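User:
Can I borrow your eye for a moment on a structure tokenisation matter? Would you put together a sequence-and-structure record for a protein of your own picking? Please set it down just below, with no commentary around it:
AI:
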Amino acid sequence: MEKQNSSVGTVKEIRIRITLDEQQIPEQICWEADDAGPTTFRSKAVVLGMWDESSHDGMHLNLWTKQMTVEELGMFVFQVLVELANMYRRATQDEAGGRELMGAAHRFARWLGQAGRWHGKA
């Protein structure tokens, strides 16, 4: 739900709902966002990273459902690596660092034997 807060501007929310089985393993991952309309989206995996400004440490939430295949997880990890490379390059203007991270993503895809198949996903 979008909110107006005069001290920080407009506030947007992203909501993630995880349904667990009896062994606390994710069965379902759903998310909604203020900018995504009234739809609830289903997902097989989520990767969320946040930087704590006071401790200078990252907090990471990495979850996947038991329905996600190993091949899907590999493709997802590849796509996350590609996005991290793009984000780093945009944020820092460090083209060499961005290329190094992108290279790591493509080496991972080659290692999994999927380089040609996933190449268009980068």
